[in-house]
Design brief:
This protein is α/β, with parallel strands linked by helices. The chain is built from 15 helices and 16 strands. The protein folds into two domains: 195 residues, Glycogen Phosphorylase B (Rossmann fold, 3-Layer(aba) Sandwich), CATH 3.40.50; 165 residues, Rossmann fold (3-Layer(aba) Sandwich).
Length: 412
Amino acid sequence: MRILITAVGQRTEHWIDLFTALTDRPDVEQLTVYASDVSPLTVQGLEGLARHQARFRYRLAPHLMAEGRTGHMASVMFRPGSGRMVRDERPDVVHVIGEAAYLSTQQAVRLRNRYWPEVPLTLYAAQNVVIRFPFPFPLLERRAYRAVSHALPITPSARQVLRDKGYRGPVTIVPLGVDTERFHPMSVRPRRSFTVAFVGRLEPHKGISDLLRAAELADCDALVVGDGSLRGLVEKAATDRRGRVELRKWVDHSELPSILARADVLALPSLPVTQRNLVPWIGIPLREQFGRVLVEAMACGIPVVGSDTGDIPHVVGASGLVFPTGDVAAFADCLKRLRNEPGLAQRLGTAGRSRACEEFGWQVIADTLCRTWRGLIAPVHRLRAPSPRPSSPPGRPTPSAAGSDRGKEETR
C-alpha cells in the first residue's frame, strides 16, 4: 500500500510519531508526506525518519499566507505549481490532514483529481464546533465533502460537526495518539510536594490564570511548561510563591516524560473563546478539540484533571476528574481530593495507562487507518485488474487461434 499524506501548519510535530508507526507496518510499501509551513521541529522529525526508514520520504513545498502571519492554518496554501513535486507518485490512497474548508485541502483535492482521479481520498477532521464561514468557504467545504471517500474525525463531536455541515459519507473516529513506549510510568519518582503540571501554550484560553489560582487555593506546587502571551503572569506567580511555582520553556518531546514524572497530576483547565485573528469581522469559536497532553500524561500513569469545555471530558473519560469550566474552587477541590486520596489517584493513573495503550497508542491508530484504507483500495484494485478471458466452448477456436487478421483488427 502506497500512501500520500498532505499537511500544513506549525503544530505538526506529533504527526511524526504516526508516520513512524505507519512505516513500521509491513503492508505499507511507501509513505510520502507533502507538507508546507511546518515547524522546524517537524522538519527535523521528517529528516530523521527519512534517514532511518527507506519506505518514507517527504516533500517540503513553498507556501503562501503563512499561519504565523494570519493566525490560522485554514489560510495556508501550497504555492501554485508545487504539486509537480509529487506528480510522479503512484499512491493507492491520499490522506489530507486538514479541515474541509482549508485552502490547502482544496489544493489537495485538485491534486488528486488531476493526477490520480480514481484514488480514494480520506480527510482528518477535528473541528468540534459548527462554524459558519462566509462565502466562498461553505462552497469549498461542500466541494471537499463530495471528493472525500471516508472521513476520519478525532472525536464524536467532530463527527457530529461533519454531519451538521452536510457530509453524508462513511466515517471512522480516529483519535490523536501517544507513543506508549516513550510515555510510560516511571519506576522511581522523586519525593517532593504535591505538584500539578500544565504543558501547553500560555494563552488565556488555556486557563492559565485559573491554574495558578487553583494551585494556590489547594496549597500545592505548580509546574508550568510552555510559552506564550501570559508568560509574565506565570513569572509573577513564581515570584509571589517562590519555590512553589516553576516555569520551564518548551522542551523536546523526548524530554516530556521525565518532566511529567515530577507531577502528581496534570491539569488542562481550558476555557471557550472566540478567535478573531484571521479577519476581525469573523468570530471563530474555539473549544478544546482534544488535549493531546492528556493522553501523554495518562500513558505515564498520571491522573488528569480538566475543565468540561470542548472534548476534554471525552478524552479524560474514567481516567481523571472533570470540573465546571471557570470554577476555580471546584478545580482546587479536584486537586485536594487527589492529594488526600492516594488510592483514588493510583486507580485513576492505572486506568489512564490502560486506556492510553488500548485506545490512543499510535500503533492502534495506525491499525485503524490501514484497515480503513485497505477497505477503500480493494474495490479500486478490483476495477484495475484485467478481466479473465472466457473459456471457449468445445470445438471452437480460442481468440489467439482465430486468425491473424482478426487479431490485428481487435488490437487497433
